[in-house]
Amino acid sequence: MRKDRDWIKATIAHERTEAVPYNATFCPPVISALQEHFGTDDIKEALGFPIRTWWCTAARPLYASPAEYGERTTDEFGVVWANSDIDRGTPVGPPLTEANLSGYTFPDPAAECRFEHLDRWCRDNREHFTIIWVGDLWERATFMRGMENILLDVALNQRFVEELLRGIADYILATMEILFDRFAFDGIALSDDYGSQKAMLISPDHWRMFIKPLLAEIYGLAGKHGRYTFHHSCGNILPIIPDMIEVGVDILNPIQPEAMDIYKLKRDFGADLTLCGGLRTQDLLPTGTPQQIRDEVRKLKTEMGAGGGYILEPGITIQADVPMENTLALFEEAGKTP
């Protein structure tokens, strides 16, 4: 019987495996539809995912339904969000209206309520490859200051940017220390978008100045404790992928094929990274036929999966515009053993 943890560890080590592992994330309407289709709340088990992910409890969950949380919710960092039934919502109220931290207090990373559920979750999922999300860094700064303002700050208020990112990084590092001390799990994940569809949101030089040293600390701490590292960044981040390898990223997600040539990524960096993602979500999944999706999944398994170091996954969360028959075709084909 295939063991999920061994399957993912062998994939990361670029060892030969029986099959290419696969994974996905879903927006709330898709989660509900899949639960109804399979007759279970545990759709990851129904779909045979070898990876399980979870997170510390937050003041506002990733998906905050307006019916439950109201039209607006403030998270622990003071960011006001407009809630949505179909996606994670939109940050609409940054707490830092000026480029300074005077009067601002970062949330307490050691708040006990953040960790109460994790011991049981780790035990319940110990047969799977377990990843805990530890937060966001640059992305969190964009929420706290607003995208336009933080990009101006990068040019005009660099000391403030350093202080803000330092404070966020310290929160992440303190969270990780608690997690490593108390819980048994395989890896940590950071969500930190750096790219648009065409290019990076922040220049590679500024990324190396402000973000890279902090990522080196975060991923260095994970390595010190024997944990794997999973980094999510949408968009075209090609210029900094060698840097990501240098700071110790094990799995890079979601390698959007609309933004980068994923087959060139495999050729250039596939020996040093595990690439996770690569299935087109902007056209193929919502408008393609089930057969077209099956064909693309087979191609990804054959070409991206060659030599290990690849986890098949859509290039972003599966949205409500994807027909159920296409979603099912994706996972039926992904789950086939050669």
Strand content: 5-15%
- End-to-end gap: 16 Å
What's the arrangement of strands in the largest beta sheet?
1-5-6-7-8-9-10
CATH topology: TIM Barrel
Number of domains: 1
Shape: globular
Number of helices, counting only DSSP H or I runs of 4 residues or more: 15
* CATH architectural name: Alpha-Beta Barrel
Q: Largest sheet, if any?
A: 7 strands, parallel
| Sequence stretches where pLDDT stays below 50 over 5 or more residues | none
Q: Helix amount, in percent?
A: 40-55%
Give the key terms.
about 350 residues, alpha/beta, TIM Barrel, three-stranded antiparallel beta sheet, 15 helices, globular
Describe this structure in words.
Helix 12 (262-269) links the parallel strand 8 and strand 9. Strands 1-5-6-7-8-9-10 form a seven-stranded parallel sheet. Strands 2-3-4 form a three-stranded antiparallel sheet, with no helix packed on it. The longest helix is centred in the middle third of the chain and has 25 residues, at 158-182. The chain has one domain (4-60, 101-334): TIM Barrel. The chain has helices spanning 4-12, 28-38, 43-47, 66-69, 118-124, 138-145, 147-156, 158-182, 204-210, 212-224, 241-247, 262-269, 284-287, 290-304, 324-334, and strands at 51-55, 72-74, 80-82, 90-93, 129-135, 187-191, 228-232, 251-253, 274-279, 310-314. The protein has 338 residues and is an alpha/beta fold.
